[in-house]
Amino acid sequence: MIAKFSVPYFLQKCGGCALKCPVLMNTEFFVARRYLMSRRRKFLSFSTIIAIGGIFVGVAALLITLSMMNGFQNELRRRILGGTPHIIVRKYFNEPIRDYTNVMKALEKYDFIQASAPFVYQKSVIKYKQHLDGVVIKGVDDKLETNITEIGQKMISGVFELDGGCVIGVELAHSLGVSIGDSLVIALPFGDQLGLLPRAKRVILKGIFDFGYYDYNATLIFMDLKDVQSLFEMGKSISGVAVKVDDIYKAPHYARQIEEDLGYPYRGQDWIESNRSVFAALKIEKIITFIVLVLIIIVAGFNIVGTLINMVKKKTKEIGIMRSFGFTARQIMRVFIYHGSIIGLIGTALGLAFAFFACMILDNYQVSLPGDIYFIETLPVEMDLNDFIITAVAAILISFVSTIYPAKRATELTAVEALRNE
Fold first, then answer.
1. What is the pLDDT of residues 175-224, one digit of tens each?
2. DSSP 264
C-alpha cells in the first residue's frame, strides 16, 4: 500500500514521528524509486530510459567485444601451440648441442615431461623452377615430432613423411606454385669461403600443412633431421631439444626448473617466452579496447548527471516539502544517490544479460568469417567471468560517482527558498 501514496501524503500520515518510524528506514529509496516513473506512474520516464540505455549499451558493447577478443586470443594461442613445443632446451647464444643424448636422458627423470625430441633450426633458401623464397628449416625425427606438435593433424595434402622429402606450409606452397610430388631445391646460399659453390639438396614435396598461423604457413619447412645435419655439415649436433609437458600454463615454472638442474650453458625457453611479442601485443590491444569502451560507460554517466540535475530543478517543490517535514540534507542527498544508482544497476544488469545471451548466440551459430583474411573461418567467442565482474563493478562505480554532484546540488536548497520559488 505504501507505494500508492505520494511523498507529502505519506509523510503527513506518519506525522511528526516520520523520521523515527522503522518503516521510514527506506523512505529515501521509496522516493528515489518513485522518481524513476513518468507522471502517470505507469512506466519509466523518458529521461530515465535514456540514462539506463546509455549504461546498457556501454556494458553490452564492452563485454561482447572483450568476449570476441578472448576468442581470437585463445584461438591464436591454440594455433601457435599446435606448431610450437611447450619448452625448448638449448644452449646460450644458440650454440649447437653435441651430446644431446645425455640431455634427453637427463630429461627422462621429470614426471611432468610427456615427450621430448631433438631438432635443428636453420635458415635457408628454397627454389622451385623460377620461384625463390627464404625459409626456416626445422630438421626433426618424423616419428618423435608427432608427439611434440600437432603437425600430423595439420596436414591438408599428402602425408607427414620426411625420408628423402619435406613438408611445407600452405602459404609457401601457394607462393611457389608447387604440388605433392614436385622436386624442390634447398640451398645454403654461401659456402664456407668466398668463391665456393653453395651447398644444395634436392627433396621431394610429400605434404602440405596448415597450422592456421601465417608465420608457420609461409616460412616453415619440415625436413628429416639427418638430411639437415648433412646439408649444413653439423655432424650429429642439434639446435635443441623440444619438450612437451602435462600443463602448458606451468611451462615457465618447468622451464626454470630444467634450467637450474641442467646448469650453464643450457637454458629452458617456454612457449610464452618464445611468442612474447605476439601475446604482449594482444594484451595491450585488449587493455586499450577496454579503456576505449569504458568511455562509452563514462558518457552514460554524464547522462545520469544531466538527468539528475534536471530532476533537481523539476522537483524543487517536493524537495522543499521534504525539508519542511524534517528531511535532513544527508537524506535528500541519499534520495538522488539512490536514484542514480538504481539507473546504473538496471542498465548494468540489462547489459550483462544482453551480452551473455548475445555471446551464447554468436558462439552457437558460428558466424562465418572470410578465412583468407583472418585464417579463422568462424567467429570465436569466449566469455570470461572476470571480464563480466570488472565491467559490472566499473559501470556501477561510474554510475555512483555520477550521482554525487547532482545530489549535492539538491542539498543546497532550503525549505523556505524552494517553496517561495514555487
1. 888 989 889 988 876 655 554 556 788 889 999 998 888 888 888 999 99
2. T
Distance CA 316, CA 309 (A): 11
Amino acid in position 70: N
Task: Give the helix/strand (H/E) hosting 245.
Answer: strand 240-245
User: What is the CA angle 85-90-92, rounded to 5?
Assistant: 135
Check: CB of residue 207 under 8 Å from CB of residue 155. yes
Per the CB < 8 A criterion, the answer to whether 89 and 258 are in contact is yes
- What is the spatial distance between Cα 54 and Cα 61, in angstroms, rounded to a whole number? 11
Nearest to 367 by CA among 357, 377, 375: 377
- For the chain, the domains span 2-78+279-421, 86-271
- CA distances, 241 to each of 90, 225, 268 (Å): 7, 12, 10
Instruction: Tell me the residue ranges of DSSP E strands in 246-339.
Output: 266-270
Q: Measured between alpha carbons, how far apart are the two ends of the chain, in Å?
A: 29
Measured between alpha carbons, how far is 222 from 144 in angstroms, rounded to an integer? Answer: 13
Could you list the beta-strand ranges (E) of 256-409: 266-270
DSSP element (H, E) containing 119 = strand 113-128
Phi, psi of 185 (to 5 degrees): -115, 120
Residue 393 carries which side chain, given as an amino acid letter? V
CA 165 to CA 155: how far, in whole Å?
15
Distance CA 345, CA 402 (A): 13
pLDDT in tens, 57-83: 889 988 998 898 888 888 888 888 888
Cα separation of 369 and 75, whole Å? 14
Cell 505520494 maps to which residue?
Answer: 6
Rounded to 10°, the helix 46-83/329-365 angle is 40
